[in-house]
Amino acid sequence: MTDLIAHLWSALSEAGLPEVMLYLPDGTACRCHWKDTTLIGETRVALLADQDRKIVRIMPIADCKGIGIAPPKGADPMGYRPTVQAKLEGCFGAGGHPHGV
Asked: Domain of life, per the record (predicted)?
């Protein structure tokens, strides 16, 4: 897996944060769960519900511009950052490298 967003999302999903906001090339954002992705060949795509157009968009994750983690309802995003950071460090270590590398 060479795509940074897919790599981060996969690790976050395994760490218990499978639902993210994907920032799309057109400037919009869409919430998506890891279970709503699939591999097509070597490309991971997200299946996104587009309510305005009443379609399912098939978006290569590599084309997304960013990824976000929504805090639980009622939680302050600033206060939730340490939780996300701890999950990332649990996946990649404090230096940003996967454990065992």
From this structure: Bacteria
Residue 55 lies in a domain: yes
Model confidence at 50: pLDDT above 80: yes
Number of C-alpha atoms within 13 angstroms, CB side, residue 22? 31
Question: Strands 29-33 and 19-23, how do they pair?
Answer: antiparallel
**CATH number of the structural domain spanning residue 61:** 2.30.30.100
Which regions of 9-88 does DSSP assign to beta strands (E)?
A: 19-23, 29-33, 37-40, 43-50, 55-60, 66-68
Q: Has residue 99 got a pLDDT over 90? A: no
Whether the Cβ atoms of residue 45 and residue 53 lie closer than 8 Å to each other: no
How far apart CA 91 and CA 55 sit, in angstroms, is 34
Q: What's residue 4's pLDDT?
A: 92
Is pLDDT above 90 for 3?
no
The total number of structural domains that make up the chain: 1
